[in-house]
Amino acid sequence: YFFWDEVAWLTFNWLQVKEASYTRLCSTKNMLTVNGQFPGPTIYAKKGETIIVDVYNRGKENVTIHWHGVTMPRYPWTDGPEYITQCPIQPGSKFTQKIILSTEEGTLWWHAHSDWTRATVHGAIIIYPKNGTKYPFHKPNAEVPIILGEWWKRDVNEVRDEGLATGADPNSSDALLINGQPGDLYPCSKSGTFKLTVDHGKTYLLRIINAALHEALFFAIAKHKMTVVGTDGSYTKPLTRDYITIFPGQTFDVLLEANQRPDHYYMAAITYSVAPKYQDFYDNTTTTAIVQYRGYYTPSSPPSLPDLPAYNDTDASVQVMAGLRSLADAEHPCDVPLSTNTNLFYTVSMNSYPCVNNSCGGANGTRFSSSINNISFDFPTIDILEAYYYNISGVYGNNFPSFPPLVFDFTYDYLPLVYQLPSTGTEVRVLEYNSTVEIVLQDTAVLAETHHPMHLHGYSFYVVGWGFGNFDENRDPLRYNLVDPPFQNTISVPSKGWVAIRFEASNPGVWFLHCHVERHLTWGMETAFIVKNGKHPEAQMLPPPSDMPPC
Ligand code: C2O
Ligand code: CU
After folding, report:
1. 3-state secondary structure 462-525
2. Is residue 179 part of a domain?
């Protein structure tokens, strides 16, 4: 016997990457979109389904597509990060990708994973409960994706290349976006502002995604509270807040009760940014959308704006993270490893390379870089997954250090300049199948401290602890939450702080670990894990598809 809802559900779908022309902030540009939509189309699925998507590249540049937060059991082949699990899909060609859902339920998203193309090539993935199961909260009256993004008047990859050419921080965006629109507070934007029409007394599930390239965001709705019920495709205990902080790559499912006086209200997002010592490039604009009650009334004009924390309020930035707990009940058990046999300590740092006559555009005439354990990652030209699978040597090294090469007071304000210089390499860390892994990610004040939303492919992990200052291996583990830690795929290492994550390495493959602040990724804040096969055939990677894009 079998039950229909346990059989992987197959849906056919396609995504076509192509150029389209869009007007925002009174100017028009050509940019890559999917199916001519911005944000791109939403993919709907049920828990446990496998979706097959034909990805066509009808643009002029190479592209790849990644399913952010989908763990892709045993099948890294169509995970998407360029030169990690595949070579790019070239203009004019097609790659048939599988999205293999397993434990994920809630909101995830998809995005391009080559250059900065994901600024315009992204969309939501909504995963409903299986037939016969329900949300762990009252069924909302409606559901609404809220996709937060960034807009440049110029081509984003030009902005990137210009930054790389001068060594400087690339120009910050010209606008923040809610569902592709800057909102009323920007020129030429009023008519496009996103509106959510609500009925008094009803409840709305907002599926909020931070698809911005760089900016962490404070988000709130005037006069309304939000109740977080999920993050990164996993449910949480309800957490009611006036605002949330959402870091690049993260998703939050929040319930909005339309329980205020019928009126128009702004929802708004602003950047959270630790003003670094050497510059303060961040987008300091405010994006808005409107929550509009149905009915007859005279709306206040203009609608009221929500109270948001000050842009550099680091204490405010950790308030949601501090309250997040997974459900940890019978239907949503928490499987956090109670002990670990593989303990890694990774520092994440901003760095710089000296330039002749201090002629570069970065801090004090240097060129910006960034690193993990002082290694700034160099992308190979053949993807690591194929190099591993086919034993092609010389593509990567497997000596990524478990510990930083130098131990010092990582969060000290006056670190000597010599710490700023990273080494470069294409190093990965090999993990035994089923090893229990703890990674402590430690921000440093080398060059400049800031938050780093670290994202792991192939896994969600339990966030068992975090704090400010240097991680203390004797004291801090005593305070770990091993009962109901949140289960996430992207966790922000607080500025001058640390986080500890745990997972069991039960998904063989090659899995990328990187900062989701796009310029930090461009500068080298990434590495990968190779998780070995287990003994049992069911603990081994599946064979590659026949249409892997050629290198
Ligand atoms: Cu959302 Cu490696 O990405
Ligand atoms: Cu970063």
Report:
1. EEEEEEECCCCCCCHHHHCCCCCCCEECEEEECCCEEEEEEEECCCCEEEEEEECCHHHHHHCC
2. yes
